[in-house]
Design a protein that fits this description.
InterPro entries: DNA_pol3_clamp-load_cplx_C, DNA_polIII_delta, P-loop_NTPase
Order of helices and strands: HEHEHEHEHEHHHHHHHHHHH
Radius of gyration: 24 Å
Keywords: DNA replication, DNA-directed DNA polymerase, Nucleotidyltransferase, Transferase
Strand order of the largest sheet: 2-3-4-1-5
Shape: elongated
Protein name: DNA-directed DNA polymerase
EC number: 2.7.7.7
Distance between the termini: 46 Å
Oligomer: single chain
Catalytic activity: DNA(n) + a 2'-deoxyribonucleoside 5'-triphosphate = DNA(n+1) + diphosphate
Length: 336
């Protein structure tokens, strides 16, 4: 059964009602996090060798055998399959049609929409098929708030907005960064933008900020060096696209205010979060260089870049680098 996004939390919270789970999508960290949540409801100790068996690609041939075996100490067994693909389908169907009540959990990152495995499992009422795609916008902000709320940590709005713009599209990395902030935070005071930038001021986020600021200011050499540092530190193409969108929107905010009669300093004071001093000169150069029409066109092109990077098999890093080069070239690269 295909599970709609709004029902995902409910289904994951009632994992014992299902015979199987297929977790698919491009966010490997989110797939693993949800798999761990399912496993924890089926078997209290995920390291129990009598009730949990993990099958990597080399062990896929044992799926049917393990799925029909009974636990020596009682209770349902969990057959946890990683790197699931279409060749598993015949064995999986026989296992699910058998008399055993064990739970089969399949991690299937990158499973195509036309996959036979995915299509067949979506038709079964006893198997939950859940998409695990990179979170963005409101869904990313909601996920971050859920993590912080669970630890009873408050975060300022500006800090949350900055976090949402720089964190990569990988739940595992997001979880690591949030845990770092939780350790850093004091329960008596909310995390401020300065706190978050100090703690998450890793080379990836700093390099992305430098890359986008340099590109919009026309500093090609600086932008190229910064984006290569960010990629070397693990920045994903989608994260690069989002960093570009964030930088463009901030410049556009100031340009709009100036178009309506505000002075540059007045328009700049309206930015939330405030302008970071390390990129202030580059930002002001970008404001002088770009007009509102060109910024809107660049924003639209950046949204197209993010969508293109999410397509399976796309040359996403090449697309991201080309887009950065267009931003360096300036408004003329986005003229009609």
């Amino acid at each position: 059964m295909k599970i709609e996004p709004r029902r995902t939390d409910h289904v994951l919270g009632d994992a014992s009602s299902w015979r199987g789970f297929v977790l698919h999508g491009e966010d490997h960290g989110l797939i693993r996090e949800r798999a761990i949540k399912v496993a924890g409801q089926i078997v209290p100790d995920k390291g129990d060798p009598f009730r949990v068996v993990v099958l990597d690609r080399e062990g896929h041939a044992r799926l049917e055998e393990e799925a029909t075996a009974l636990s020596l100490i009682g209770g349902r067994r969990l057959i946890w399959v990683r790197d699931g693909q279409d060749p598993l389908l015949p064995m999986l169907e026989r296992a699910l049609d058998g008399a055993a009540d064990n739970v089969i959990l399949i991690e299937a990152s990158g499973l195509a929409s036309r996959s036979k495995l995915r299509s067949a499992m979506e038709k079964r009422p006893d198997v939950a098929v859940i998409a695990c795609y990179a979170e963005e916008g409101r869904s990313l902000s909601a996920a971050l708030r859920t993590m912080f709320d669970a630890a009873h940590i408050r975060v300022d709005r500006d800090a949350m907005a900055w976090l949402s713009s720089v964190l990569p599209a990988d739940r595992a990395v997001i979880r690591q960064e949030v845990e770092k902030l939780i350790l850093f935070a004091e329960p008596s005071a909310p995390l401020s933008l300065d706190d978050v930038q100090l703690c998450i001021g890793d080379t990836r986020a700093e390099s992305l900020s430098n890359a986008t600021s340099s590109a919009l200011a026309g500093e090609r050499a600086q932008a190229d060096a910064a984006i290569e540092r960010a990629i070397a530190d693990g920045a994903a193409p989608v994260a690069i696209a989002r960093a570009c969108s964030y930088a463009l929107l901030r410049v556009l905010t100031v340009r709009h205010a100036m178009d309506e009669g505000a002075s540059p300093s007045e328009a700049e004071r309206g930015l939330r979060p405030p302008l970071f001093f390390k990129v202030a000169d580059l930002f002001r150069t970008a404001v002088r260089r770009w007009d509102s029409a060109a910024l809107l066109a660049a924003c639209s092109a950046t949204q197209e870049l993010e969508l293109a990077c999410k397509q399976t098999g796309a040359p996403d890093y090449a697309l991201a680098r080309r887009h950065m080069a267009r931003l360096c070239f300036g408004p003329r690269a986005f003229s009609a």
